[in-house]
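Reading is simple: each integer encodes one residue's backbone shape. The lines below illustrate:
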Amino acid sequence: MIDIELFSEPVFLLNEKFEYISSNQSFSRYFTSPALQDDIFRFTADNSNGKIQEFLLFKKDEHEYIFHIYRIENGSSILCIIFESLLIEPVIHSLSSTQVMKDEFFNMLSVLHDDFVIIDKYGVIISALPNFESLYGLSLEDAIGKTIFEMEERKIFNPSVAIRVFKSGQAETMLQRTGAGKYLMCTAIPIKDKDGNIERIVSYTRDITKYETLKEEYENLEENLRLYSEEIERLRKDNDQIPSVIGKSPSIRNIIATISKISKFDATVLFLGESGVGKTMFAKKMHSTSSRKDGPFIEINCGAIPENLLESELFGYEKGAFSGASKQGKPGLIELANGGTLFLDEIGDLPQHMQVKLLKCIQEKKIMRIGGASVKDVDFRLITATNQDLEHLVQNGDFREDLFYRLNVITIKIPGLKDRKEDIFSLANHFVTTIGDKYGIKRTLSNTVIDYFMEYDWPGNIRELENLIERLVLTSDDYMITEEQLPSQIKANIFHTSSKERSLKDIIEDLERRIITESYKRHGTSTGVAAELNISQPSASNKIKKYVKK
């Protein structure tokens, strides 16, 4: 016979007919002997291993407790040990309350938004409001479990704002045309884990066909968005101190960090980089975050001023200094930079005779106007930039070595756009917005256009991207700019640039990645991909994990 007093928790014994025999002291402290007919209800449950377990539901003072049944090996008695000291009723009540809250939450969402969709990290729709079909022309049952890539391919989402969020990693708002022919203003917001990876995307919409009746509400929304944008801008200024730099690639973030460190010092800075990478913009931002930000920023393009006028433009002249000179004389650009920043762009194009005068000016911080007799003190911070190899120019005798070392105190290399393609998406959308605002035109780029942009090498860098988008915005007749409107050199150059200096293995792998990705966008399942490409389902699943869900 088992000694039930060895148990610290409440325990009682039954015989094989489930009649009460005895209980331990712990049980007696909390309960009276049960009247089995009235107090106890017997039930069974399967555990995780598939084995059946027996329980007793024991009532006391209108509360319910669970006891776990253990049959003694000799079969003469049954040991009942309290399963947990948790009340059943509060748990059931809690679950019931949770369901009520969930129902109330979705009822409120249906009042606030025409649609509300939740998407998982793989792009699969996992929840939506019941009126999904009225907006998109597809039943809710058919939508759940489908991917947003398939929905965009089928023009049910046209385009998909959630795909934009997957690419940008931040909230997006755009106009969307649905499969039911409705125009919706859609907003999608990413929900991220502690590592910054997207776990869910929440999307909500407003049917803008109701615009007139919702005009006042939208005006309030626009005001809130304006305040939100201002707050984001303030936070960005606090974080980067360079608010208008578009890009989040590691190279750009390193440049921003470097500029933040050195902007408060007056050390000479040399920006290097291809034409169109934004050297002037970075020079202006270095000035705007320096102690000289309240002073002038004087920019001189050394390659744009004719050589015979360069000296007078840089150093100025006194009245009557030469034929055609102003009677009042004219201060030079270096003199105008006093108290601020002097930016000499394309410094590699500076003629040699002007290199001597510039070196003297930099060393002494003094200038003399042409035709003048007095020396003027000038106080400026010098920033220069070039797309040329100054060291090579020095070796060829085209650039003074002593001037080179004067300029090359702190050198910052700005990478070309092909070396920071993760910034193309943000830059493209920025230019679409700013150029659209400039001309009063609303346009957006299709996801396929973005894909083309990501493949192109952009020899003209940011300047080429901006000029192309301006052309597309002005010549497009539709709200959405599609790949059909791209110039031929963008399309024709993609395969050439992607295959240059690459092995056959890399080219084949890239082609396989494109095929698997496009197939998965259409079908959303490994089974669909396998059927379309005539491969096994396990092989399709492995390739999807490799190329799509990596």
Summary: The chain has a mean pLDDT of 80. Residues 215-240 form the longest helix (26 residues). The two ends are 61 Å apart (CA to CA). The longest strand covers residues 183-192.
